[in-house]
C-alpha cells in the first residue's frame, strides 16, 4: 500500500512539474521569492514541528537524533549567500536538524533545524581561544537546549538526545546538570577523555568487567554482505575531566556513564563495531546496556532521512536565484522527506494500513482529483 519509490519520484519533481496550471506554479515561485522577511525556514517549519511535538508527547520514550549534512549548490554560481562546504571547492549550505523517532524506529518528524553558510575565511586557528557560542559546534548545544524546551512541555516523556562522534563535546555534557530530569544525552565518544583519578576513558573500560553480550543484525551495505555481530558490553560510571585548554581548565568534572560495545571475531574485511557510548541514562544492568546500544542504532534513521532529502526530493538540484528562496524551498522538502520516510518505514512493516491514518480528508480529496487525471504521479498511499 505504501510505496517509497512512488513517493520519491513525485517528490523529486520541479515546482513547475508539481502543478497542472502555469499560474499555480508561478504562485509557488512568488512565495519562494517573496520579499517578506518573516517567511523563513523556521516560520514555515513551525506548524510541522508543533505536530511533531504533539506526537512525541504521546510516547513514553523518544529518541531525538541530531546531525549535520552539507547541501551542495555548485551549479548556482550567481546565487548569493552560499559558502564553502567541507570540500572547499564546493559551494552550498549546512543543515543541522533534530529528528524525532519512536523506539521502533518510526519517525515522528522534525523538531528543530538550523541552516547556515560558512564564511570564505576560516577561523580554525583561533578555535581553542573561542567560546562555544563562537564556533560551529554550538549547533550541538543549541539542539540540546531546544530539546530541553520541548521536554518542559511533555514531562511524562523521556527524551534521549543522540549524536554521533562529532557531538562528543564537553560543553554538551555540561548542559545536562541544568536540564529537565526527562532529558538525557546519548553520544558516541570520539575522544579518549581524561577521567578524575588520572586514568583515561578507554583504559577504564578495558578494566571494566564484561557485563554480557548482544547480537546485532548488520544489514547489507554496498559491497558488504549482511551479518550478525556479537558485541561484548562493558560499562562504568565515570567522571570526565574538562579539556586542558584556556577556557575550560577550571570547569568541574562531569559524572556520566560510559558503555563500550565491541564486536567479537568480526569477519575478515569487515569493519568491526567499536562504540564507546557516553550517556546520562543510568546503566545498572545488562538489560539497560543492551537497550542503550539499540537506541543508539536508531540514530541511523537521520542518515536515511538525509538520503531521502537529497536523492528523493533532489534538494541540491533546486534552481533558485537567492539563498533565501533555497531556504524556503528546503522547508517544504524537509516536510515531504519526513512523510516519505514515515510511509516507507510503515510500508515495510504495516502495508495494509488505510490512507486515512496519514492524510486528512482535504488531502485525500486532492489525491482523488489527481488520480482521475492521466499521467499524474500519486503521493505515497498505494
Q: How does this model look, in words?
A:
The model is unreliable at 1-9 and 376-382 (pLDDT under 50). This protein is α+β, with helices and mostly antiparallel strands and 382 residues long. The longest helix has 27 residues, at 323-349. The chain is globular, with a radius of gyration of 23 Å. Helix content is 34%, strand content 22%. Strands 1, 2, 3, 4, 5, 6, 7, 8, 9 and 10 form a ten-stranded mixed β-sheet that branches. The N and C termini lie close together (4 Å). Helix 1 (4-11) packs antiparallel against helix 9 and helix 3 packs parallel to helix 9. The chain has two domains: 1-123 and 130-164 and 299-382, no CATH class; 193-292, no CATH class. The chain has helices spanning 4-11, 22-32, 41-57, 138-153, 170-175, 201-207, 286-297, 300-312, 323-349, 361-372; strands at residues 61-72, 83-84, 91-101, 107-116, 158-163, 183-188, 212-218, 227-240, 254-263, 274-279. The chain has ten helices and ten strands.
Amino acid at each position: 500500500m505504501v510505496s517509497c519509490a512512488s513517493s520519491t519520484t513525485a517528490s523529486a519533481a520541479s515546482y513547475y512539474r508539481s502543478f497542472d496550471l502555469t499560474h499555480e506554479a508561478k504562485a509557488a515561485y512568488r512565495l519562494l521569492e517573496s520579499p517578506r522577511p518573516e517567511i523563513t525556514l523556521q516560520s514555515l517549519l513551525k506548524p510541522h514541528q508543533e505536530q511533531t511535538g504533539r506526537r512525541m508527547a504521546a510516547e513514553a520514550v523518544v529518541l531525538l537524533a541530531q546531525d549535520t549534512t552539507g547541501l551542495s549548490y555548485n551549479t548556482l554560481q550567481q546565487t548569493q549567500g552560499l559558502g564553502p562546504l567541507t570540500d572547499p571547492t564546493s559551494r552550498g549550505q549546512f543543515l543541522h536538524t533534530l529528528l524525532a523517532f519512536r523506539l521502533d524506529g518510526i519517525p515522528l518528524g522534525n523538531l528543530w533545524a538550523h541552516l547556515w553558510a560558512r564564511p570564505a575565511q576560516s577561523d580554525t586557528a583561533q578555535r581553542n581561544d573561542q567560546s562555544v557560542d563562537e564556533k560551529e559546534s554550538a549547533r550541538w548545544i543549541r539542539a540540546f537546549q531546544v530539546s530541553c524546551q520541548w521536554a518542559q512541555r511533555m514531562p511524562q516523556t523521556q527524551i534521549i538526545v543522540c549524536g554521533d562522534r562529532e557531538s562528543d563535546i564537553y560543553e554538551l555534557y555540561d548542559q545536562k546538570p541544568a536540564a529537565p530530569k526527562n532529558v538525557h544525552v546519548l553520544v558516541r565518544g570520539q575522544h579518549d577523555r581524561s577521567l578524575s583519578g588520572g586514568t583515561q576513558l578507554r583504559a577504564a573500560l578495558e578494566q571494566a568487567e564484561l557485563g554480557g553480550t548482544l547480537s546485532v543484525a548488520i544489514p547489507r551495505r554496498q559491497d558488504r554482505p549482511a551479518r550478525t555481530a556479537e558485541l561484548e558490553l562493558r560499562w562504568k560510571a565515570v567522571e570526565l575531566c574538562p579539556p586542558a585548554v584556556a577556557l575550560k581548565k577550571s570547569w568541574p568534572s562531569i559524572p556520566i556513564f560510559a558503555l563500550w560495545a565491541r564486536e567479537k571475531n568480526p569477519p575478515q574485511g569487515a569493519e568491526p563495531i567499536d562504540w564507546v557510548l557516553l550517556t546520562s541514562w543510568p546503566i545498572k544492568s545488562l538489560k539497560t546496556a543492551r537497550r542503550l546500544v539499540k537506541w543508539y542504532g536508531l540514530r541511523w534513521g537521520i542518515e536515511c532521512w538525509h538520503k531521502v532529502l537529497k536523492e528523493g526530493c533532489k534538494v541540491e538540484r533546486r534552481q533558485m536565484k537567492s539563498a533565501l528562496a533555497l531556504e524556503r524551498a528546503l522547508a517544504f522538502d524537509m516536510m515531504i522527506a519526513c512523510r516519505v520516510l514515515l510511509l516507507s518505514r510503515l510500508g515495510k512493516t504495516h502495508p495494509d494500513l488505510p490512507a486515512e491514518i496519514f492524510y486528512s480528508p482535504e488531502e485525500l480529496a486532492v489525491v482523488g482529483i489527481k488520480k482521475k487525471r492521466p499521467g499524474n504521479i500519486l503521493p505515497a498511499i498505494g
